[in-house]
Amino acid sequence: MKKIERRAILCTILAAVLLLGLGIYLYRFVRHGASWASFPSNRHLYNSSGQLASGTVTDRDGDILTQVDGSGRRTYYDSSTVRRATLHAVGDPSGNIGTGALTAFADKLSGYNLITGAYSPLGSGNTLALTIDAHYNYVAYNALDGRKGAVGVYNYKTGEILCMVSNPAFDPLDPPVIEDGDERWEGVYLNRFLSSTFTPGSVFKTVTMMAAIEQIPDLYQRTWTCTGSTDVGGQPVTCLEAHGEIDVEQALAKSCNAVFALLANELGAATMQEYTDKSGLTSSYSVSGISTVPSKFTFAGTSQNELGWAGVGQHHDAINPCSLMVFMGAVANGGQAAVPQLVLSVNTSFGFSTYWYREKLTDTLIEPYTASKLADAMSYTAEYTGKSRFGNIDICVKSGTAEVGGGKQPNAWFTGFIRDEAHPYAFVVMVENGGGGSAVAGSVAAQVLDPIVNGY
């Protein structure tokens, strides 16, 4: 009798394990079935050349960026410049660009559903509309003028990315043969906006200032005298010029390394790390399911001089452009910003929507009072960085000229936001080895923001 009972218990346990396993499988099937079906080896979805054989990608205005023609061949937008400008948003035929819609959103494009699977008798694939505008990408790509870099503009209230360009880029209808060591195509498959980090230089001073506003009570009563070189920890921290007697807003506007190196040391390594983490720079954002690369910093264990340079955006600092753009959005929006999104809508061939856009907010990246003070300082900074280039746009900015060593030109940065309820946009421009931040990256920003704000 006891033997039968033991067997019954064992059978019950095995049945429970079987049911649990079945439940887990069904959950994963419902949740991840589309991703399983869109795996590149699935010949129901991919042709013999490895190209997704279903689905259409458009921009926010409905302009078709890529689709499959009647012969089953994937085609792209007519203009070769637009094809290059939208490459990292749309993707390449071979699927080498992981952030491209053809790879990242293959499950949404395929038309997969739980009833018919990868093959649907109701049509071949879905139409996926991206949040980007092809025209804005076109303008940004031309503004980069062949230089490596990244440009991003987004609505910090809704999260919609209006412009996302990474360069170098190629024409997906005419992919290059890339030889090892060819610097022209270095990192071409990498989306520099979402998936890489770069030495930031002075744009990071916005984070140091955020910490100083909250931690140094008499910050706005202080003045400093910059002679062009200041001793920090027994070694110099240099500026491009002697700024003379300045207050903290002038120090930000004139990008005085000395002042911000001294502030970083007064705040200390732990506080610098705390505020850098709070700003969201060291976090990873999920942009419609695509994870951004976290920024990297080293504050702990540094010397006074190293901490000073880290506070001005040098040392081992490396910032992800998208994360910096989101932080700018939080400053503009009083503390929180929308998480960036790339997918606007997904519709079947019969017009049924299969995607619902959900706005998500970040954590509080900056306190509202601090955001207001920093925004005012960045508005003042705009007066020193060619505000006239932006015409009627009420802009708050910070430029950066980041030394990268190795005999190379500095990285040029320009980031900020528009202080206008009708145009709630934050932006970032990074030009690798571009030179001066305000002159080079600022010029790109001016060209991109003009049509976005003024509507042409």
Describe the structure.
With 456 residues, the protein is an alpha+beta fold. 35% of the residues lie in helices and 16% in strands. The protein has a 5-stranded mixed β-sheet, with no helix packed on it. A 5-stranded antiparallel β-sheet has the order 6-5-16-15-14, with helices on both faces. It starts with a helix and ends with a helix. Mean pLDDT is 88; it is low at 36-49.
Give a short summary of the structure.
With 456 residues, this protein is α+β, with helices and mostly antiparallel strands.
Strand segment count: 16
The largest pleated sheet is described as: 5 strands, mixed
Q: Structural class of the helices, strands and pairings? A: alpha+beta
- Secondary structure: helix percent: 25-40%
SSE topology:
Layout: H1 2-37, E1 56-58, E2 64-68, E3 74-76, H2 80-85, H3 87-90, H4 101-104, H5 106-109, E4 127-130, H6 134-144, E5 149-155, E6 161-167, H7 192-195, H8 205-215, E7 224-226, E8 229-232, E9 235-238, E10 244-246, H9 248-253, H10 257-267, H11 269-278, E11 286-287, E12 290-291, H12 304-311, H13 321-332, E13 343-347, H14 368-382, E14 395-402, E15 411-418, E16 425-431, H15 437-454
Parallel strand pairs: 1-4
Antiparallel strand pairs: 1-2, 2-3, 4-13, 5-6, 5-16, 7-10, 8-9, 11-12, 14-15, 15-16
Helix pairs in contact: 6-15, 8-10, 8-11, 8-14, 10-12
